Structures are given as C-alpha cells and as structure tokens.
Amino acid sequence: MGDILVITEHLKGEFQDITFEMLGKAKELAGASGGQCIAVTFGNMNGKVSELGAADSVVSVGGSDDFNPESYAAAVQSVVSEKSPSLVMVGSTSMGMDIANSIATALEMPTVSYCADMSASGGGFSVTSSMYGGKMNVVTDVTGSAVAMVLAGAFNADAGKSAGSPSVEDFAADSGAGKVRFKQLIEPEAADVDITQSEILVAVGRGIGSKDDIELAEELAEVLDADLACSRPLVDAGWMSKAHQVGKSGMKVKPKVYIALGISGAPEHIEGMKSSTTIIAINSDKNAPIFDVAHYGMAEDLFDVVEELVEELED
Amino acid sequence: MKIAVMLKQVPDLVEDLEVDASGISLDTDDIKFKLNEFDDHALEEAILLKESGAADEVVVIAVDGDGVDKMLFTAIAKGADKAVKLNGGKPGDSHQLGKAFSNALGSEGFDMVFTGVQSVDDRDGQLGPIVASYLGAPCVSVVSGVSVSGGTAVVHKEYSGGMMGEFEVDMPAVLGIQAAKQAPRYAPVSKIRQVQETASIEEVPMGDLGSGSGSSVTSMAPPAKGSGAKMLDDVEELIDVLKDKGAI
Fold first, then answer.
1. What chain B residue is nearest to A241 in terms of C-alpha separation?
2. pLDDT tens-place string over residues A38-65
3. Which residues on A lie below 8 Å from B164 (Cβ)?
4. Which of A2, A163, B7, B96 could serve as A86's disulfide partner, Cβ 3.0–4.6 Å?
5. pLDDT tens, B51-67?
6. Whole-complex ipTM
7. Which CATH code, of 3.40.710.10, 3.40.50.170, 3.40.50.20, 3.40.50.620, is assigned to B2-221?
C-alpha cells in the first residue's frame, strides 16, 4: 500500500489541533500498511517542522501563509498528482472543505466526508462517517487513492504531537488561476463574555424553541453563577451573539460543568465541548447523540426540568 | 447580476432514523424531509443581495422528488424570481448531484451560484465545491456575508474561534453559504398557496450524471451506545450531581 498524505492546517503561524489529530492516525495507518506518513505544509512553516515529528517527511509547498481556497487546493492537487498517495487526509474544516472537494473532483478520487474513524482493511481503508447529525455511522470501504475528510476531535491530538526532525522537501507547486484573493484576517469582535474561561456553562440549543424562552436558561445560569452558551442555530437565528457560540465555527470550551439544554449533539457542536470535565444533557429526544458524550443525562422536557431546578435552587 | 441557488431536501433529524432492509441506506418511508437549513441561508443571502440592488435575478434549482415543487414555490414566495426542476435521473451521491446541477448551470450564464455549505447526508463531499470544480469556477465554502462590486464578490469565510478570512472572488463563482446576514425569512402559507396557483416551475433534463463518487457504502447503523450518559430520574438526582461536581 502507498503513502498517506496529511494536509496540515495553520492559523497565525500555529499548526491547528486537526493537524496533530490526523498525523497521529496517519502514523498508525501507515505503520499498519507499510507506507510513509507525509505532511504537506503551506507558507513559511519550516521553523515549526520539528512539531511534525509524527510524519516521516514533510512536503513544503510554500506560497502565502494566509489560507487561500484556490491556491492551497491547486498546490495540494499538484502534490497528490506527483506523489500518488493511497490516502489523503484533510480536515473536515473550513479550510479542508475547499481543498478536499476540489482535488478529489479534479483527480477523480473517491471522497469520504465526516470521517470519525478509519482503519486499514484488505489493501484499502475502511472509513466510518458520522452522518445525519451524528445519528448514523456509515462505513465506506475505499481501495485505490482516496480523500478522507476527518472530523475535528475524531482522533487524539496527543498521538500526533511528537517532536522530531522529518526531512523537508521544498515542492514547486501550482498556485491556481488567481481568481480568489486573500484580503485580510478578521478577529472576532470584542465581547462582554469569554466562555472559554467559564467554570460553569449553561448551553442552549434549538430545543429551546424561541428567543423568549432563553430567559429560562438565563435564570438557571444566574442561580448557578454560570455563563450562557449556545449552539450554532441560535446564533444564525439572531437569538444570541457569536461570542456565546460553542462548536466548529465558534469557541472550544472546557468548563468544569457543561449543562446542555435542548442540544441534540451534532458533530460540529460536540467538537467544541467534548473536553468539558462534566457534561450534563437535558433533551426530550432520548436518542439524541448528545447523550453519547454526556456523563449525565435526563431525557425529559427541558422546560419542566429547568423550571423545577431553578425553583429548588432558589429556595 | 444573476444568482442561482441550489436547493436540496434532507431528512428532518427530529425524526427517528432507521436503516432499511438493504443495511446500507436510510429507511425513507416514514421520515419527513425538509429544506437543508444551510440552503435556506443561501437562499436568504441571495434574496438580500437582490433586495439591496446588487443582484437582478434569483433562480432556485433543485432535483425533482417528493415535496420539491412545494419547496420551490416556497422559495418563490420568499422572493426568488424563477424555479427550475431537474428531472430524468436519480443522482445517487454528491458527485452525481454535482453533475446534475453543473449540467444545468453551465448553459445558463450565472454570475454566482449559492448553496448551503454542507448537509447532513453528504457522504462523498460537499455540493458547492464539487459543482465549482465541474464548472471550472472558483469556490469559497463556509461563507457568512457576501457583498458585490463590479465583477468581483467580497466574502467572509469563517474559521474556528470566531475568526474570519476576507476574500475577493472573481465571478462567476460558487459559494457554500454557512449563514446569511439575517435569519432566513418565513413565507406565509397564504403566499405560498398564491404562488402555487400563479407561478410555474421550469423543467430541465439533468443530463449525464457521470460515474459518481467511486466508493460504496458497506454498512449503515446508529452509533453503538458506549457507556453513554448515566440517566437521571429526577431533579433531585440532578441537584446531587451538580453539588458533587462543584456547580452548586
């Protein structure tokens, strides 16, 4: 079997966790199949290559330090064409989504999205995708060269964090047609709350039903001296501000106690809160995936539970 | 400027999902389908651009199927100008779906193509970048916020931790929309009914769908319940846990 390419991600000069999560798994898979684990870096990350010790070697495509959907995808496409790896691991992330689909379609390679687990199997790979908001696991067997889009948090970052001095190949890669141009990086607006520092979070999801009912969660947060957080749909609906959002495009939090109210537990949300010390989920749907990551759960109407809880605590 | 919005229905996750007898696909008999929530944002962003004067026409496009007419009429009731339905085939995955859309879009001269950034059923990649690749057009995914000046669009692409990248994109371009500038609007039932009586849906053959994703599903099953959560029976038990964990 051939080599495994890991498409690294960096932001503001730091490799992102997804890079190490993929590297750890790639190293394991390459070990099992006899191939090499090759990390692909962009921009000027050569000073940080020692962090990529889990890789057997590094291919540096250079170019801009700032991500560009078009030029980064073009660069990866030229590396993949040259190296013919058996597997390309790309993050199921904002950056990865632009790269993975573009190269897979252009090179006619099978793509597997939402990859939550993978193993070497009979000359190829068996890939488990977490689909339908985490409600179904779908297994795809791929043989020949394929692209896997790896969910953030699916694999342990520590397994991919080993120092070393992999050899670096400077690769003259394509940079695309220049139809997409990076302008600037925009920092999040200053907010009155930093939920990444909170000890206790009361998080609300779609199950809360309406903007007015968030008040109930606020009451609970007040009696617990907790901060209020939420899942993506509440921000999209304009019910809460972005500073409160937990998950893939929001904040990664790890409070002592995370109380999830009416949150179903889509992979995008779980990615942001799974490191919480204790997770308590209250959701009327007993099959909600949130109960798989929660330590404690109540499959009941959140309004009944929270109303009673607030009353009891206020007494 | 003309914007096409690709719309797709997905299973409503409020429903209990079950695997059918084949063991590799969903049992769709009893489940409800609804518009992919991100597609709803894509439609909203397109309508907002039209209302601001930046776009002249919004065309919604979907593959034929149960409930698709209603979905398209609803989009018109919200502000789309025209609806197109692709028929004559059954796309089996994201790549075939991408072919169906790119076949139709290629001949129509759009300046921008919007769709939802992702959907809960894309097993083999996301529709936006796949269509862009087939059309040879640039693509940016995870976009929240689009403005247009001349032949270029300025888009905000979301990263994690609330960071965003700003990009200038030459048109024609494909954008995978994460969130519109405002929450998607509702169309009153009376308006949808009125549209159903007066508007029409153009039908277009979807053409050659190509060979698909190149991979096949071997099994589908709900995730194995690990140790999972310890289920609590009442609020008293919940209070005990909160005390034990130092939240009270």
1. B162
2. 999 999 999 999 999 999 999 999 999 9
3. 185-186
4. A2
5. 999 999 999 999 999 99
6. 0.93
7. 3.40.50.620
